[in-house]
Each structure stands twice: as structure tokens, then as C-alpha cells.
Specification:
Chain B: Residues 49-296 form the NADP-dependent oxidoreductase domain. Chain B: Residues 1-29 form the signal peptide. Chain B: This is Aldo/keto reductase. The structure holds two protein chains of two kinds. By secondary structure, chain A is an all-alpha fold. Chain A has one domain. Helices cover 70% and strands 0% of the residues of chain A. Chain A contains nine helices and no strands. Chain A has helices spanning 9-12, 17-31, 34-51, 54-77, 87-107, 118-141, 156-169, 180-195, 203-223. Chain A is globular. Chain B is α/β, with parallel strands linked by helices. Chain B has a domain at 45-231 and 267-276: NADP-dependent oxidoreductase domain (TIM Barrel). Chain B has an eight-stranded parallel sheet. In chain B, helix 6 runs parallel beside helix 7. The chains are: A mainly alpha, B alpha/beta. The structure holds NADP nicotinamide-adenine-dinucleotide phosphate (NAP). NADP nicotinamide-adenine-dinucleotide phosphate binds at residues 52-54, 56, 85, 146-147, 173-175, 196, 224-230, 233, 254, 271-276, 279, 282-283 of chain B. NADP nicotinamide-adenine-dinucleotide phosphate (NAP) binds next to strand 11 and helix 10 of chain B.
């Protein structure tokens, strides 16, 4: 299309909601019980955070890196691309985030759990827990099948949200380089869900913006 | 409601008036099949209702969903349908159509309509060849420049393909009422066989200029978004279908909306997209019963305008 701006997101939506959620269903059925491993990895992130220390931060970054790489390949490239012409670019963005996690998180140790504001810590914890346990429940709560659950480490939205939670938990000196892609993803996904008229469209964008706000607020307080 | 006899008479008169309005251009394809109109540049006749594939056929690698699409196609052909429209912009829709055609043993009645949609003119041929392979057919009946994208580069290629027998018809498309000025200029200056544009009960701008121009230039017209991708049907559906819709054999708002489009004498074929067998049959069915005459068309439009 020559002029994309003539069309709104609803005009550009390429697939039916049914098709979008079927994608997760087939993905889940094909790879079961990989979901359990993904959840175990997510739980490990929390355990490492409780333990604290530089090594724990690097390990957390390594786990997230693996998840972003897997979502790029297993979801965007192998599956989403079959119905969305833009999914190849999404895959690239997820690989880029994995590389950023390698650089800033694993090599430079910027994800080490560090003291943060109370609010930031609570929000970070809630976000990670929600990504791990709440997000997969959303679909069934809204009347979709269990088999269509979006699981951390496999589906992009809970992976991005958990990453934002970890970033909040990493304390008052945010690694800003790790923020833009997860936040951008939450906005892209929210727009897609809005175009599909999904009732939960605002959830990921709002959570992402809230996380940004808290991180910025925490950083401002530190610098004062 | 009046006595049955009167209704029958009125219906008959309506049908006669419709025939008079449409003249010799309208004819049933075969006993109880959908009515057809000729492509002006060749005289070949096309059923008034075709099948779109935007969204509905973009089901990816999902085998069950592909089979469901093939079932829609099977019913479409069985009911006398011919024209299927797609585009490289529609995700996996071309592959899904190819899957359906192969499954159905490549029905001879298919009229294949696809598009070229790429900014780089030099890449057009490669894209069209990829599309052809996805459909799994020897050649396209119609190729259209999608949304006028890079048309000065693509049209010469399409005309050359037509001259070489690699293609039967050439067209251009637009939708949502965009870029009608440019479309009119191309229609006036290029030897097109087809244009595709948006026309429905509420988007009626094309009645003023593009449809008369198509008639004058002998260009066939494919209508997209007859239901505004379903939004129009949701709006209409908030109230009951008026009793007088029965006079033109309408039992649903979808038929009401589609009859309005295909009863315009300058429309060759309206393409609606559906993922459902009952809907594809309902849509094709609109081309078998009575069609509204001019007075009835005005009444239909007036009703839609009040919503
Ligand atoms: N620029 C371009 O070249 C361009 C732009 C737009 C469209 N197009 C072409 O035109 C085709 C048609 O346009 P469109 O797909 O945008 O919209 P449309 O045909 O106006 O509407 C399609 C929607 O209507 C529903 N529907 C179909 N038949 C129905 C019935 N009998 N009763 C109730 N609902 C019914 C379908 O849902 P169900 O699946 O539930 O039946 C579907 O959601 C496209 O598929 C595409 O091939 C071309």
C-alpha cells in the first residue's frame, strides 16, 4: 500500500481473532510440555532475584535472553509470520532485545537485583508474577480455551511484561537500553488486540507505561 | 402485508422493471445459477457475486482452518460462483486458495483475480510469478495493480503479459474511497479491462463519476467491501429487516446490502469475503432471485442513510 497513513489499524488487520488465537493453540499443543520448562525458568528468575547478587543478575539476564530468542524464532518467525507480514520484523526486534540482554545484562551485569523504591519493587514483583501466572489465565477468563494460553517464555506479551518487571526489580539505576523494545512490543500488541476488538487490549500497554513511569520516578528520586 | 396475489404481481413487475433497467446485459448463467454480466472488453460473462479472501482466508498453516476455507470454495463453485480475488498483501490467503483449488481438483469454472502490490516496478514480475505458484494455476485471468501502487511501472508489464498470452485481463484497484481522482485519470487514459473499487449502501461516491466512466470506457467493475467488512451489517442488524425487502427476495440484511450493489447496472461483480459455507451460499443466492429496480434502490439507500 502506498499510503499506510490513509488506513487505521483496524483496516490493516490481516487476520481474524479466531486465527490469531488458534496460532497459540496449535503452538501450545505442538510443543507441550515445553510450557512447564518455561514456567520453571520464570520461577527460577524469581528465586535468583530473592538470592540477589551480581551472579544472580547475570543468570536472570541469560534466562530472559533465551526466552526472547525463542519467541523470535519459535513464535514470530515460525508461526506468526504465516499470518502477519510484519512478523519477520518482530522476530528481528526480539533478537535485538536478546543481544541487548547479552550485552547489558550478562556481560555488564546491569540486571543485578538492587535496592529500589518500595513501590518499584512491589510493582516489579507483581508484574513478573502476573506474567508468569496471571497472563495464561486471561484467555480462559475471557472465554477462550485453555489450550490458547499465552505462556511466559513462549508467547511475546508475557515475555515482554516479565522483562519489564525484572527491569523494575533491578533497582534505581535503570539499564535504559533494555526498556524500549519490550515497551514498544506491548504497544504493538495492544494495537493489534484493539484492532481485533479484544477486551484486554489495554492491559499490556498500560502495564508497560506504568513500569516506565515507576522506573523514571525512581531514577529521578535517586538523582535528587 | 397485502394479499399474496398482489405481492406476487408486484414482485413480477419489480423483476420486469429490473430487467428493463438492466437491459440485455443481465442474464442467468444457467438454469437457477447466479445471474451474470459481460466483461465489456471481451463479452465473457461473470456471475454477479464473487469471493474475496482478505482476512477470512489468511489462516496460515492451520490445516483444519484451511480445510474449512476449501469447503467455502467448494460450495462457492457448486453454487455457480467463479471469480475469486486475492493479493500478495493478504498474508497466507493465496496459499490457502491454492490449497483449496488443489483439493477440489482445480475447478474449471475458476476466474482467478489477483494483484501486484510492490513499490519497486522491476520486482513486479517476480511477485506475480510467486503469486501464480501459490495459487498453483497456469496463469491468472485477471491481475490488478493493488491500490494503484506504482501503477506507471506495473501497467506496462501487465499489458505486455496480456499481449504475450500470459494473462487475460488487466485492472487496477482502490478501496475505502481513496484516490478516486487518480483512478479516474488512469481509467481515462489506459486500456483497462477491469477496475475494483468500494461500493455499498453507504459508500456511494463512485455512482457520481467512476461508475459512469467505467460504462463509457467499457471497463468491467469489481466491487469490494460490499458489507464494509461486516461493519455495515452490524449497523443494519440493529433493526429488523423491513417487510418490503421480501419483494426483492431478501431474507437477510446481507442479501439486502448485496442486492443493492449488484443491481447497479455498471457493476460486473461484487466480491464479499466469508469464512462460512452458509454465508457464501447466501451471498451467491442474491444473484439468483429478483433484483431491485431504480425506485427500490432509492428506497434501500434512503433506509441505509437514516441509520
Ligand atoms: N484495495 C483492494 O484491492 C481491496 C480492498 C478491500 C477489499 N478487497 C477485496 O474485496 C473483498 C471483500 O471485501 P472485505 O473482505 O473487506 O469485506 P466484505 O466482503 O464487505 O465483508 C466481509 C465480512 O462480512 C461477513 N459476511 C460475509 N457474508 C456474510 C453474510 N451472508 N452474512 C453475514 N455476514 C457476512 C464476513 O464474516 P463471516 O466470515 O462470518 O461470513 C466478513 O467478516 C476482500 O476480501 C478482498 O478480496 C480489495
Amino acid at each position: 500500500m502506498a499510503e499506510w497513513w490513509l488506513y487505521g489499524p483496524r483496516d490493516l488487520l490481516l487476520f481474524a481473532p479466531r486465527t490469531y488465537y488458534r496460532l497459540f493453540e496449535l503452538y501450545n499443543l505442538e510443543l507441550w510440555p515445553l510450557q512447564l520448562l518455561a514456567l520453571a525458568l520464570g520461577t527460577t528468575v524469581l528465586v535468583l532475584w530473592r538470592r540477589g547478587g551480581a551472579r544472580a543478575g547475570r543468570a536472570i539476564a541469560a534466562i530472559l535472553l533465551l526466552c526472547w530468542l525463542w519467541v523470535a524464532w519459535g513464535f514470530h518467525w515460525q508461526r506468526y509470520a504465516s499470518i502477519n507480514l510484519a512478523a519477520g520484523y518482530f522476530a528481528l526486534a526480539f533478537v535485538a532485545q536478546a543481544l541487548l540482554l547479552l550485552w547489558l545484562g550478562v556481560l555488564r551485569g546491569r540486571l543485578a537485583p538492587a535496592p529500589a523504591t518500595r513501590l518499584q519493587q512491589r510493582a516489579g514483583l507483581i508484574l513478573v508474577l502476573f506474567a508468569l501466572l496471571g497472563f495464561p489465565l486471561l484467555g480462559p477468563l475471557l472465554g477462550r480455551s485453555w489450550t490458547q494460553a499465552e505462556v511466559f517464555g513462549m508467547a511475546p506479551d508475557p515475555t515482554a511484561l516479565a522483562t519489564l518487571g525484572v527491569l523494575l526489580l533491578a533497582g534505581g539505576r535503570p539499564a535504559w537500553g533494555l526498556w524500549p523494545l519490550p515497551v514498544a512490543w506491548c504497544l504493538v500488541s495492544g494495537t493489534t488486540l484493539w484492532a481485533m476488538e479484544a477486551p484486554d487490549f489495554a492491559l499490556a500497554p498500560l502495564a508497560a507505561l506504568l513500569a516506565v513511569g515507576l522506573a523514571a520516578g525512581g531514577a529521578a528520586r535517586r538523582s535528587r | 402485508m397485502g394479499p399474496p396475489l398482489q405481492i406476487t404481481r408486484r414482485r413480477l413487475l419489480g423483476a420486469l422493471a429490473a430487467l428493463a433497467l438492466l437491459g440485455p446485459r443481465l442474464a442467468p448463467a444457467r438454469e437457477d445459477g447466479p445471474a451474470t454480466r459481460p466483461i465489456p472488453s471481451s463479452g465473457e460473462r461473470l456471475p454477479l457475486v464473487g469471493l474475496g479472501s482478505w482476512i477470512t482466508f489468511n489462516v496460515g498453516d492451520d490445516r483444519a482452518a484451511r480445510d474449512a476455507c476449501a469447503e467455502v470454495m467448494a460450495n462457492f463453485f457448486r453454487a455457480g460462483g467463479q471469480l475469486i480475488d486475492s493479493s500478495p498483501m493478504y498474508g497466507s490467503a493465496q496459499e490457502v486458495i491454492g490449497y483449496g483449488l488443489a483439493k477440489l481438483g482445480h475447478p474449471a469454472r475458476l476466474f482467478s483475480a489477483d494483484k501486484v502490490w510492490i513499490a519497486d516496478g522491476a520486482a513486479g514480475r517476480r511477485q506475480m510469478e510467486t503469486s501464480r505458484q501459490r495459487w498453483g494455476i497456469p496463469r491468472f485471468d485477471l491481475l490488478q495493480v493493488h491500490n494503484l501502487l506504482a501503477w506507471p511501472a506495473h501497467l506496462p508489464t501487465l499489458f505486455a503479459m496480456k499481449a504475450a498470452g500470459q494473462l487475460r485481463y488487466v485492472g487496477i484497484t482502490t478501496s475505502h474511497g481513496h484516490r478516486h481522482d487518480e483512478m479516474a485519470r488512469i481509467m481515462a487514459s489506459q486500456p483497462l479491462d477491469f477496475v475494483q473499487l468500494t461500493y455499498n449502501l453507504v459508500d456511494r461516491e463512485v455512482e457520481q463519476r467512476l461508475l459512469p466512466l467505467a460504462r463509457e470506457r467499457g471497463i468491467a467493475v469489481i466491487v469490494n467491501r460490499p458489507f464494509q467488512r461486516g461493519a455495515l451489517l452490524s449497523k443494519l442488524g440493529r433493526q429488523p429487516l423491513p417487510a418490503w425487502a421480501g419483494e426483492i427476495d431478501c431474507t437477510s440484511w446481507a442479501q439486502f446490502a448485496l442486492k443493492f450493489v449488484i443491481s447497479h447496472p455498471d457493476v460486473t461483480c461484487a466480491i464479499s469475503a466469508t469464512s462460512r459455507v452458509d454465508h457464501v451460499l447466501e451471498n451467491l443466492g442474491t444473484a439468483t432471485g429478483a433484483l431491485p429496480d431504480q425506485a427500490m434502490r432509492s428506497r434501500m439507500a434512503a433506509l441505509a442513510a437514516r441509520l
